Automatic annotation (TrEMBL):
Origin species: Streptomyces enissocaesilis
GO molecular function: hydrolase activity
Superkingdom in the source lineage: Bacteria
Keyword Hydrolase assigned: yes
Alphabetically ordered keywords of this record: Hydrolase
InterPro entries referenced in this protein's UniProt entry, alphabetically: Cof, HAD-like_sf, HAD-SF_hydro_IIB, HAD_sf
The name this protein goes by in its record: HAD family hydrolase
Amino acid sequence: MTSATDPQQARPAPAGTITPRLIATDLDGTLLHDDKSVSDRTVAALAAAERAGIEVFFVTGRPARWMDVVSDHVHGHGLAICANGAAVVDLHAGGELVQVRPLAREDALAVVLALRAAAPGTSFAVELSTGIHYEPEYPPFHLDPGATVAVAEELLHEAAPGSGAPVIKLLAHHAELTPDDFLALARATADERASITRSSPTALLEISGYGVSKASTLAQCCAERGISPAEVVAFGDMPNDVEMLSWAGTSYAMGNAHPAVVAAASGRTVANNDDGVAVVIERILAGL
């Protein structure tokens, strides 16, 4: 991946006459530093944007239970888009689910069977609105010790623990394929049953309901507010941000972004560790 660490290397998006009304930013690799902290400069920039009347939406692949990292920095509406668009949560209410766009269990099962055939050795986890469950071979990233451990076919069965809860997303991991090769294979194999993307540096896929993405849910939230794509400024760094950056009127790839993100964005800012989001917000506010 390319990197831009000098603020002078940032490439501004094309100048326009429309005043931004909403900032949509990814978290990991974008707003957050690599140590998962939010810098004082970024906290100040977010607060200043809200004071200027620009709404801020955190738009992330994280589940609602992992949003405590930014819960103290939410102003105004308090809403965040989680799980790559599968959930809208109220961070003022402790991450309460406001909207869920689930992955149908039959579609999740079809994807599991397709990937088992196309990529032997794939292991799965099932993210429900109530928590995560996973297969014995699934890597121990951030797993819940109280989760059910079983093969995905059992976890997706209607009689499985938590079966009354919606499936937020299916996770698929492969120990040998490269991340981009795994993503391409999965999309070629099962893309008609679900939306498939990735945000991890490992071969870990995130599988949502068909048509569910950061972009589609953000578009809904903006439509409810009478905000057009042209009035949105978006930030991201990984393939799960591509649709959102393409949809927004103005978008920035981070200096540490995946090449597909750089190609999709209309502008470029510096890396997450150099407060690339804050750099752009400060520039926007200076021009108001």
